[in-house]
Each structure stands twice: as C-alpha cells, then as structure tokens.
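Morning F.,

Quick status update on the modeling queue. The single chain you submitted on Monday has been processed. Sequence for confirmation:
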Amino acid sequence: MVLIIDTETTGLSGYPKDRVLEIGIAELEGGSVKSVYSEIIRYSDIVEFDTQILRMLSNRNPVF
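Structure tokens below.
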C-alpha cells in the first residue's frame, strides 16, 4: 500500500503567512486507487485570500 498526499496552500512561505487550504490523500494498492480522501481546510482563509487578491487586482493600474 502507498499513500499519496497532496496539499494546496495560499503560498510557499509557510505558517504564519500562508495557510493550508486543502488536503488530499489517495491510497494505491496493486497499481490501482483504492480510496481517496479530500478535505477543504479553514474555508474562511480561502474567502479572505480571494478577497485580498481581488482587492489587489482592482487597485492596479492597467499598463498599455
């Protein structure tokens, strides 16, 4: 049995600047996927992060 773990984060700096948003785990056995687990973590951080990005993008001056 092999477990493959994948995480999605808000960046590469680590805690406390960045947060884990989602974790996924797949179990492989005999060359096939036996089970999969996926969970969104701290949804409020996702909303806060999206809001910050949208605010940043809306404040930028377009370059022509």
